[in-house]
Every structure is written in structure tokens, then in C-alpha cells.
Amino acid sequence: RSxxxxxxxxxxxxxxxxxxMKRATQLEQALRNAIISDSIDVHxxxxxxxxxxxxxxxxxxARWNDPDLGFVSPAVFVPLAEERGxxxxxxxTLLRKAAEAALAWPRELFLSFNLSSAQLxxxxxxxxxxxxxxxxxxxxxxxxxxxxxxxxxxxxxxxxRIIADLxxxxxxxxxxDFGTGQSSLGRLREFIFDKVKIDRAFVxxxxxDRASEHIIKAVLAMCEGLExxxxxxxxEEHAEAAKLKALGCAMGQGYYFxxxxxxxxxxxxxxxxxxxxxxxxxxx
Length: 284
Ligand code: C2E
Ligand code: MG
Ligand code: MG
Ligand code: MG
Known about the structure:
- The chain is 49% helix and 18% strand.
- It is an alpha/beta fold.
- It has an 8-stranded mixed beta barrel, surrounded by 5 helices.
- The termini are far apart.
- The protein binds ligand C2E and magnesium ion (3 copies).
- One magnesium ion is lined by residues 176-177, 197, 233.
- This is Diguanylate cyclase (GGDEF) domain-containing protein.
């Protein structure tokens, strides 16, 4: 009897595995088509000054709405693109679209763009980014690249070279999702970052959990000493924005200030939320 059940289980498992593999292949094929047909879009989410709620820049976030699969999260398709070797093609189109959109914004605003870890292992990345900026006509000083701790560690020498080359022409580097990766503090000693983005896991728990608040305070004090600018991610409520402002956090990002929207809606957002006070603006 147990033998029969055993065999039955094997059948069930293999059917599940087969279905999973079929789904993965479908997803990969759909992603390949979406990249070829240029149908992956880029949306923009505001990053604001917590002191006065002024918009300082936008983070570009990839959006893929497939006719058959529906909305697929970048947390799913970006890793898949990395795994299957499509990330260069995908990232190049996304940066091109993002840079073109940023040209329509006031010149003081920065564009923040996520780099994947695979790109930090590829020595061609810096020249390909600079070529896209040149072609689009976007000043490298307006670009920030968001990278994660794990990404810098995966291929340290190449990553450091890419970062150094880009910083030399004015591109700034943000450490994304700070507090979630491995070996956070050691990275900050290397002085390769301009900004630190505190992961939203800490922000969302800040008002209910004392530990998260203490961690945020410590990160802010440490970043002040290291002359790193800080962005708090995932601010959804007024109370979170107010607390972070009181703690001295310079910048915030989250649904409370604005969800990611397409480039046309971003321009409308700027019409209502951006006032040209260039002389009074602090440098982000
Ligand atoms: P990330 O870079 O940490 O981006 C922030 C994520 O938090 C985004 O998710 C954003 O939509 C979400 N978010 C922002 N504010 C709030 C909030 O108040 N509450 C909540 N619950 N979520 C908020 P998204 O767009 O799904 O992107 C997920 C991740 O996928 C990104 O995390 C980034 O690692 C990656 N990603 C997105 N676009 C790109 C891209 O163009 N290139 C690369 N390499 N990675 C990308
Ligand atoms: Mg990011
Ligand atoms: Mg993040
Ligand atoms: Mg993230």
C-alpha cells in the first residue's frame, strides 16, 4: 500500500514540477517577447525633502503588464532577466526611457535608477550607461544609481571599478534596501556611496516597534558622521513622515507622498507639487 502511495506521490510531484517548469518557460518566453517588442514600461515615484515636502527627484521602477499574464512584478521579472541573460537589454531600454522622461522635468531633479547585481559584474556597464546618457542628453550629475549590498559583494573588484568610473563623471550611488542585506556596516567604510536608503521594513514598523525606531535613529546618526544622505523608503502615513522628520531624516519616499506613476502622470504630479524655488533648494 505504501508503495502505491509512494508512486502516487511521485506522480503528483512530477506533475507539479512539470507545471512549474511550463510556467517558468512561458514567463521567460513572454519576457523575451516583451523586451523585443519594447513593451516594458518605466514608472516614477517621487523622493521628497521631509523638511518641506518638496520633490527632489524620482525613482524609476520597471512595469510590465502582459496581455496574457497580467501584471508581473519587477521583483519576479528582474531576477528572471538576470538569470536568463536578458538584463542588459532590459536595463538599457529602461534607462533610455527613464532618461528621456527626466529631460521633461525641472533640471534640479534627479533620476534614481536601480542597477541589478548582474550589471555590477559586467565591466561594460559603466560605458553602456554613459552612452545612454549621452544619447539621451541627460547630465550624469542628475543620475543616481541604486545598488544593494549583495550586489557590491558578488563581484567586488568589478563593482568597485564600475562605481568609481561612474562617480568620476558625477553619477551618485545609493545603497538601496539598507538593513536587509548582509554585512551592512563594512560597506559604508569604503566611501563609495552618496546616499543610503533605509528599507521600508524599518519604516513600517517604526511606530509600533521600539527596536525599529532605535535602528533608524542609529542609522541616521551613523550616516551623519559618514556624511551620507539618507532616504527613508515606504512611508505610507503622515505619522511616519512626521516622526522621520523629527528624527532628522532628510528625505522620504512612499505611497504617502506618491505612488509610482507613468511619465505623463509624473509631469502632472510635478505641475501640482513642484514649485521652482531653485535658489532655496537644498542639494539632494
Ligand atoms: P526597490 O528598488 O527597493 O523599490 C522600492 C519598491 O517599494 C518598489 O516596488 C515600490 O513600488 C515599492 N514602494 C514604494 N513606496 C511604497 C510604500 O509606501 N509601500 C509599499 N508597500 N511599497 C512601496 P516595485 O516597483 O514592485 O519594485 C520591486 C523591486 O524590483 C525594486 O525594489 C527593485 O529592487 C526592483 N526593480 C524595480 N524596477 C527595476 C529596474 O528598472 N531595474 C532593476 N534592476 N530592478 C528594478
Ligand atoms: Mg530602489
Ligand atoms: Mg529599496
Ligand atoms: Mg527592494
